Structure formats: structure tokens, C-alpha cells
Amino acid sequence: MSNIPIKNFKPFFLMIFVIVVVGIISQAIFFTEKPGYDGTKTIIFNLMPFNIPFIGYLPVTVEGLVYGIIFSMRMVAIFIPPLILPFTTHPSEIILMLRKFKFPEWMILLFTMAIRFLPLTIQNISITRNAQKIRKDKIRLNDLLLMLESIIITSLRTAKQMALTLDVKSFGYSKKRTSMKNISFKKNDLFFSIFSISIFIFSIILYSGGFR
């Protein structure tokens, strides 16, 4: 699963780019304009050449730009792990890991279904968009609404089929689950855990020291 071509991650890179750009631009304009802000305000330039009622000149400030970069990095840090995990880790390994931590079987099932629905949904979106491009040169708002409707219907059908499959296999009938594969906590896992905890502690120290 980890030998995925880099081109398959193009939608994720595009999503991250949009998050970063929107976060930086929005905070660069509105960060110093929010009520209660009493810090410095270093204007780089104004987006509007004249004062517009209720909006003003829409100034782009250095303080807002810096906060926009920090805000965007936070959003990227939040969105990247759940997006990459389903494409780099086999579902069976995720199930074994959760079972190792004594999670309930129903919770493991819900988590696995959630992370597998994301790639399926992205694949359905890609198929629907390609079908629309074959029919039309330009995709309008109405086409996007039809695509959304198609994705919702497909997701509901998939959920129904999965529920029927679980009933047929008598999921939940046996309390003890077995697996042909087993996982253990190795040195690499220990190193990664220590590294992650160290970053977390370092972030808390920076935050408590006034770094925002």
C-alpha cells in the first residue's frame, strides 16, 4: 500500500494548497480587523483603493500574514494524517493495532469503515467528473450539484451493502475474534513513539512560553 505513485496524491496536494492559500489570505486581511485586537498593525498594502462601508480598505498586514502562515500550518497538520493513513496502511494492520489496544470490535469496525469510505468517495468523485467532462467542455454549478447527489446515493448504497454483508457474516455473534496475522511493538515503534511524545511536549512548552 505504501508503494503508491506520487501522482495519486495530487488531489491531496491540491487540497492542502487551497487550505494554505485561503488561510494565509483570510488571516492577512481580517486578523488585525477582528474586535478586541489591540496589537501592532503594520500595513503592507490595501486591497481596495477607497474606503468601502462596513469593509474598509481591506488592509493586508504583516501580523495577519504571519498568523495566517501559522494558522495554515496548523490546518495542514490536522488534515494530513487522516488523509494519508488510508492510502499507506492496510486496513488489516489498522484493525490489528486497534485490537492490540483492546478497543471494542464495534468501534474498530466503525473506524475501519470510516477510513475506507474516504478513498471510495474520492474514486467516485473522479469517475463522475470524468464522465461529465466527456459530455461537456465546461462544468457548471448545476453539474456539481448533480455530482454531489450521485456521490451521496452511491455512498448510501455502499453502506447498505456493507450492512447486509455484516448480517450475513453474523458480525458480533462471537465475542472472541481471531486473526492469521499478529503485530508486536518493535524498536522502530518505540523510537517513533518517543519522537512523537517529544514533539508534543516541546509544543506545549512553546505554547506555555507565549509562542502562538
UniProtKB/TrEMBL annotation:
InterPro entries from the UniProt entry: ABC/ECF_trnsptr_transmembrane
Membrane topology: Multi-pass membrane protein
Pfam families, A to Z: CbiQ (PF02361)
The keyword Ribosomal protein appears for this protein: no
Any one GO CC term of the record: plasma membrane
Compartment(s) of residence: Membrane
Residue intervals passing through the bilayer: 12-31, 43-60, 106-125, 189-209
Assigned keywords, A-Z: Membrane, Transmembrane, Transmembrane helix
Major localization listed first in the record, in broad terms: membrane
Name the record gives this protein: HMP/thiamine permease protein YkoC
Organism of provenance: Methanobrevibacter oralis
Chain's gene name: ykoC_2
